[in-house]
Design a protein that fits this description.
Layout: E1 2-7, H1 26-35, E2 40-46, E3 67-70, E4 73-76, E5 102-106, H2 129-135, E6 140-146, H3 148-161, E7 165-174, H4 182-192, E8 196-198
Parallel strand pairs: 1-2, 1-6, 2-5, 6-7, 7-8
Antiparallel strand pairs: 3-4
Length: about 200
Amino acid sequence: MHCLILVDLQNDFMPGGALAVPDGDAVVAVANRLCRRFDLVVASQDWHPPDHMSFASQHAGRNPGEVVDLHGLDQVLWPDHCIQGSRGAAFHDSLDQRRLSSVFQKGTDRHLDSYSTFFDNARRKSTGLGEHLEAQGIKSVCLLGLATDYCVKFSALDAVSLGFRTRVVREGCRGIDLAEGDVERAWSEMKSAGIEIVSEHSLA
């Protein structure tokens, strides 16, 4: 059994959104095509309370892109984004949601960010995705979405650490590159961890 994981295909990460990933909307068509090829399709959704501590607005004198210590973890500060129930937190209108069997929300704890679709950044709490995949008999996962150098990377690293065969679809991802080279470093880190970087067409 194989599962496709769609990572954070939400309005705030699309062009015009609060935390827009360049060319982020280009991955939606890839997601729609690949949804038809997998036994199981799930999605993650950033789902922050309005006072989430990863928001620069919660730190006086701080700006998006700066890094602070948040309860012992390095935390990049972001613009307010993907606030629970908001238009920005909703999936992109063009995403075909009919194939989605489950949605796993993350970043719900005000005090702790969650890049990965599997765990929060401190790995203190599971989103339930790993347990769900095991219950469904899934042995192999394939990921795509936003952003390559954050939520896709950390999701893929957690997937392979949990024992899943893990593949990431290169043309189904776009990155932020907050620091120049972050995206390429993310691809290299994933490859070094045993994650397969594949093309959409190789999955046909």
